[in-house]
Amino acid sequence: MTDSISDDDPGARRRAGVVGVVGAGLLATLCGVAYAAVSLLRFRRFETPSWDNAIFEQAIAAYSRLQAPIVDIKGPDYHILGDHFSPITAIVAPFYRLFPDGRTLLVAQAVLLALSVWVIARGAVRALGTAAGLAVGLAYGLSFGIASAVWVDFHEVAFAALFLALAGIAFVERRWRAAALWSLPLLLVKEDLGLTVVAVGVALALAGARRIGLATALAGLGGFLLTLFVLIPAFNPGGGYDYVSVIGAGDEGGPGPWASFWTGWDLKLPTLLATFGVTGFLALRSPWVLVAGPTLLWRFVGDNPYYWGTDWHYGLVLMPVVFAAMLDAIVRLRDGGRPTWLRRYATHVPAIAAAVALALVSQFPLAKLADAQTYEASPRAAAAQEVLDLVPEGASVETDIGLITHLSTGRTVYWTGTVGDAVPDWLVIDAYAGWGQAAPDAVAYAETQHPGTTWELVLDRDGYQVARRTS
User: Fold this and answer.
1) Less Cβ crowding at N or C end of the chain, within 10 Å?
2) Of 370, 389, 408, which one is at a domain's C-terminal end?
């Protein structure tokens, strides 16, 4: 296959033109601003979707001090590389050193995702021209996988989105070696992405780059096995991999992974339709779509229903893959693909993808930017701020999900469910943080949780209780 749209083709560069370059940059900038705004406004309202941002902040804060990434939220002295293998997050550490705040991670994620928008949009402009290319960039930037990921705070897969965008566009442009090389950093993003690298190798081999594809697949498989069976167990306190039990229905002795695969299709089928539907289903015409396979497979054999739907960050890895696959399919059809009706359809897919993204945007978190309540202070903001002012920096504090992402900056934070033998100086309880029943009395809870200690209640306001250890 000819390298007709590579960076070395001056005709392709001329077709893109200044308008395309500026347009792609402007689109990426606007998307990045929107992503950051959604995250920061949610943070400002003390809306905490999970403990993940606090976990990553503890790890990145340790990296910024050139220390091992100990995450006490997972358990006292817990080395996070024994949980998920994501050393790539250390890249954020220098920025955190300058701006030590949980919001630094939110901005970092917005920047990474905006860069992936620029890569997809710029590549689409080179391949299709300005109007169609920017339509593809818009569809990608508004896609549900990105919007859902932005809403649930920082995750390491924001790096994967950028690397997969770079690898995917290189594949579209028949730059096989670049596609392989851009996929290799995925081995440092998360342990399961080694299988994604294997899939990249398979896609390259099917496209004709057999030697590069084989080498990439072997590197991915080797990296996956090394990470899963050597590196993670070396850091894990139990000497194993904690997520084996979620692959399949139940723990040891359960019915196995395929039992989970065949359940939950009321969530899984809409996820598949949304994932490929955002590309007008044209992504299915490209071998690059195979790169989405490992992520879809582990999600669907997992026994956690959160994996199956379109919420959370689990669809983020898929978005750059399916959009690059769509671009590749359009290029293949344009260059003489059959049947003729499909070639005609392909010319309209960029507009269709943009229309679908615009139609669906109201169903996902980016729509919150049009909601006046998003910009208002939380009804409990004053009480939450009083809690933060009361618990001093440098203190150790045990808490639930409620204020964990805000307390984690400058403090040693433990989660109530994994505090172990640690005895903190403070306890913060949020009655609205999902205790499943009426929240316990903070003092009684602390003295039960930590026998032999005594505590006093220093704040009880708007559902927040703060207890301080006195002995």
Assistant:
1) C
2) 370
